[in-house]
Structure formats: structure tokens, C-alpha cells
Amino acid sequence: MVMLPEGWDCKNINEIGIQVIDGDRGKNYPKDNEFQATGSCLFLSAKNVTKAGFDFSLGQFITSEKHKILNKGAVELGDIVITTRGSIGHFAYYNQKKYQTIRINSGMAILRSNVNYINPDFLYEVCRSQIIKTQIEKASFGSAQPQLTIAIIKKFRIPLPPLSEQKKIAAILSTWDRAIEGTEKLLANSQQQKKALMQQLLTGKKRLPGFSGKWLWKRSKEIFKSISIKNNPMDCELLSVTQDQGVVLRSLLERRVVMPDGSVQGYKLVNPGNFIISLRSFQGGLEYSYYRGLVSPAYTVLDNKIEIENDFYKFYFKSYNFIGHLAVATIGIRDGKQISYQDFSFIKLPYPPLPEQQAIAAVLTTADEEITAIESDLVRLRQEKKALMQQLLTGKRRVTVD
């Protein structure tokens, strides 16, 4: 812990009246067949406590009768829940009553503040700070499934400014939390709107102004052809294809790991504007390449046979409509993940007039740009709050208390 300013203290959790409450592990602990999809008492599991706090989208419940015979682990308003097994050190603050009763499972613990010594909002900010993260990393044990014990949690060191300063610090940081939460909601709404736009525009259900008439639908082999350009120079870049990042350039170090002798025998050339698909272990979607480089022989490289707007198909190959067609194509194939190029070549794809392809691609590109801008704002807000937490929670930056 860093040097604290005058008037501040640093104490263990158990020294400042914070109760650390374990989940009930006794003979009355709920069995698998006692959980219900609905009920009066929510029984928290690891899926309900994430890095971002509580996630109540999925829940399991126990009956009120079962709740009454359990001795420990009931969550009260103002409690903080921490995960103690597996994905340890996730905190969630129950500051808004959502359920009549809540209990924790045996992989969690409850921190219950003594409001005469520590403000619960302040404690929650400390719990999510690097101050506690560092202590968790040092104190946890178990490699396969990291764990924390109640005894370890009780020894966590907490910076303790005067109560009035705690409240002011918590109020300042909660303002940033609200800004972050608002930006997260804006991002989720923008992403949902883009999905809806894709579903409507890429299937012709919704037409942009100035366009009418029926679309052509062509087999993919009428629009694309498989190309295999080999015997390429060794100084070509090596490409990786992932669903999360798309097509990316591999580092020289990665290349040496993949091909220690530097050989690119059999590797296929990809040019900007080509699409890449792994038909041997297909997981859904085609990736568009902005780069020139080489891919493994396991990939199929596609080039267009007729004039198209590449960005239109870049979006279409990420749409639920296309992935649904692939799901049909993979029925009956081993593991449901492998298709041949022949299977793919018979899938029907939309082929609207080129100007309409370009207009649709422009609308969706604008939506992407808006999402990217919001994501950048979110990253900036999180970084700024993290820096402010480090200053406020250690006393490097003081606040004025009325």
C-alpha cells in the first residue's frame, strides 16, 4: 500500500467491522434437482457475478421453504458479493432491491459494511480497484481452480479516509460509473440497431429510397470462384483468420513458430478484396481481407467472378441470414462444422443491382463507424476512471469536503 496522507488509515477488512459471510455449505445446501427456473429466492451462481457486476439475465431459484432452512449466505441491500472459486475476485454491489430474497452459493462470499466506519459505495470502488486486485493475485491459491478463503478476504487491506471524504470520493466515482453505464447502453443499442438494419437491408425486406424491383438470387459459384495461387516468394506476409479479429497480419515471431524452416510451400496468396473461408473446420461467416499475404492450404480463397460491391458481401457473410443457410448446408456432416466447397458453392446469395449494393454497404459502414466511435469513448471513459480511482483511493488527489 502506498504512503497515505494525514488523517487516513489502512486496516484489514475485519478490523473495521466489515462482516465476511460465507455461503451455506451444510447438509441443507440445495441439490441439483431442487433448483427451479422461477421462484421466490434467487440462488446466485458464478454466471450472475461478472467483472461488470451483477448479471441477472439468467437465474436459478429455490423455494421459500428451502430459503428458510439455510443458515448463511442471505444477501441484503447494500451488500457486496465476491466470487471465491474459479473466476475469483469478481465483485457485484446489491444497491438496488431487485428480488425479494437472494442467497449465494458456496463459491462466493458477502461483504457487509459497518456504515459507522466505511461507506458501502466507497468500499465497492475500493474492491474494484487495483488495490484489491493486487492483493487477490498474491493471496489466491490453486492453479487449476484459483480460490480465496474467508480468512484471506478478512486480511485484505483497505485505505480508510474520514467517512465524509469516503462519501465524496464515492460520489465522484459514481458519476463516472453513470457515464460509463450510459455509454455501454448506447453501444448496445447501436449494435442492436445495426443487426436489425443488416437483417432488413441485406435481405431486401427494407429498401433504401430510390430502389425498387426484385432482387436476383444467385448461387455462390455464380458470384465467386475459388483461387489457389501458390509458389509465392518467402518474403510474403503470413495471415491469420479469426472470427473475432477477422484477417490479421502475423508477427515475424509467430511465423517462425508456425514454419521454423521459413517454408511457405503450398500456402495460398490472398489479395486485398479476397474472401477467406476455412471449409475444414467452418464455424460460421466468411472473412474479408484488406491485406496481401499468405494463408494455410486449409483455407479456401475466394475472388469475385462478376462485378460486386465487396463491402456488401462483407456484411452479408456476417449476417444471421447467411449463417442460417450454412447451418442447413452442414446438416448431417460430421460434428456439424465441416462443409465442402461444393456445398458452399450451391448456397444462394442475394445479388441486388450494383448501385443498391453500394448504397446498402455505405449505410452499414456508417453504422460501423458510429459503433467504433462509441467503443472509443467507452475505452477512454474506463481508462480515465481507472486513473482517477488510483489517485482518489490512495489520497494522491484529495477532495474538498463541504
From TrEMBL:
Coiled-coil region: 364-391
Ranges where the Type I restriction modification DNA specificity domain occurs: 5-186, 295-375
Gene3D superfamilies with a match to the protein in the record: Bipartite methylase S protein (1.10.287.1120), DNA methylase specificity domains (3.90.220.20)
GO biological process terms held by the UniProt record: DNA restriction-modification system
Keywords: Coiled coil, DNA-binding, Plasmid, Restriction system
Pfam family of the protein (one): Methylase_S
InterPro entries from the UniProt entry: Restrct_endonuc_typeI_TRD, Restrct_endonuc_typeI_TRD_sf, Type-I_RS_S_subunit
Entry GO MF terms: DNA binding
Protein family per UniProt: Belongs to the type-I restriction system S methylase family.
Protein name: Type I restriction-modification enzyme S subunit
Species per Swiss-Prot/TrEMBL record: Gluconobacter oxydans (strain 621H) (Gluconobacter suboxydans)
